[in-house]
Design brief:
Elements lengths: L19 E8 L9 E7 L9 E7 L24 E5 L11 H15 L1 H4 L1 E11 L1 H12 L22 E5 L27 H6 L7 H7 L14 E5 L9 H12 L4 E5 L12 H19 L1
Parallel strand pairs: 3-4, 3-5, 5-6, 6-7, 7-8
Antiparallel strand pairs: 1-2, 2-4
Helix pairs in contact: 1-3
Protein name: BD-FAE-like domain-containing protein
GO molecular function: hydrolase activity
Keywords: Hydrolase
């Protein structure tokens, strides 16, 4: 199995949204790592809803190795619909292995909740949103907030404040690292996940098939059970994804349904990773379906 060229999936240049009030480089953790920062985008007054502002916590992708909070994949279109967006940086695998990234994401949610009154944010309507590696973090936020096992990842500041989220939007995210190679499409150049130098192995700090206990601790699917109910999930995935196989969302949907968690899996045709190859109609349908999911949470 050959490794694909990840640069093929690199997003275009980031252009800051014009219809927002922007607060840059908020340090959300007193530990002070350069990546422990977020940018907060607030909708312009004319686009705000009555009452407090619902919040999207956006987590960028990048194979756990690269990417930044200045991501063109951030759903900036939602600012016009009255959402605030907090776009996070977090420690990458070259900075620290799992669970550092998840600890950072939880710290960011706690900071946002602790400072919500300053920005009129609605602490009851916080939605985690990510794509690829960011979808993994968003999913982990969702499944661990309902699990006592998630307490292990609560470190840093504002520990008296919850890191729970009210919903999760996860686009083409990994959910069980050990099944990724087996689920890969049969044709085309594939990403090798079992290799010692794979993004997942670097993220875990060991060749994934050789450290299954560590991998299980990092897999979102591990935390889904009938006794600990996560918030609703919206999953979207291209059926011909050569980086994160479509099957990753299928098995996650099945696990969530078995646990009676509200979940929608929205296939985006035969598109590849980052929805490459999707038509305009398919992308418009994805936006509409995502908005419908958000409406079930924020009204």
């Amino acid at each position: 199995m050959d490794n694909v060229d990840l640069s093929r999936f690199a997003p275009p240049k980031f252009i800051p949204p014009k219809d927002a009030e922007i607060i840059k480089d908020i340090q959300y953790c007193s530990q002070g790592h350069v990546r422990q920062r977020l940018d907060l985008y607030l909708p312009k007054p004319e686009n705000r809803r009555q009452g407090r502002i619902p919040l999207i916590v956006y987590i960028h992708g990048g194979a756990f190795m690269f990417g930044s909070k200045e991501s063109p994949l951030m759903p900036a279109r939602l600012l016009a619909k009255g959402f605030a967006i907090a776009s996070l940086d977090y420690r990458l695998s070259g900075d620290a292995i799992f669970p550092a990234a998840l600890e950072d994401c939880k710290s960011a949610v706690r900071w946002l909740r602790a400072h919500a009154a300053e920005h009129n944010l609605d602490t009851d309507r916080v939605i985690a949103w990510g794509e690829s590696a960011g979808a993994h973090q968003a999913s982990m936020l969702g499944v661990t907030c309902a699990s006592a096992r998630g307490d292990d990842f609560e470190v840093g500041d504002h520990l008296d404040v919850s890191s729970a989220v009210a919903g999760v939007v996860a686009y083409y995210g990994p959910t069980d690292f050990l099944q990724m190679d087996a689920q890969a499409p049969k044709e085309g150049t594939m990403m090798s996940h079992d290799a010692a130098d794979s993004p997942e192995s670097k993220f875990i700090g060991g060749t994934i098939q050789e450290v299954p206990d560590k991998v299980a601790r990092a897999n979102p699917i591990t935390y889904v059970s009938t006794g600990e109910k996560p918030p609703p999930f919206f999953l979207a995935h291209g059926k011909n994804d050569h980086i994160v196989p479509y099957g990753q969302s299928v098995i996650f949907e099945e696990a969530l349904k078995k646990a009676n968690v509200p979940v929608t899996l929205h296939p985006v045709g035969d598109s590849d990773h980052v929805f490459i190859g999707a038509s305009k109609d398919e992308m418009a349908a994805l936006d509409a379906a995502t908005d419908e999911f958000l409406a079930t949470i924020v009204g």
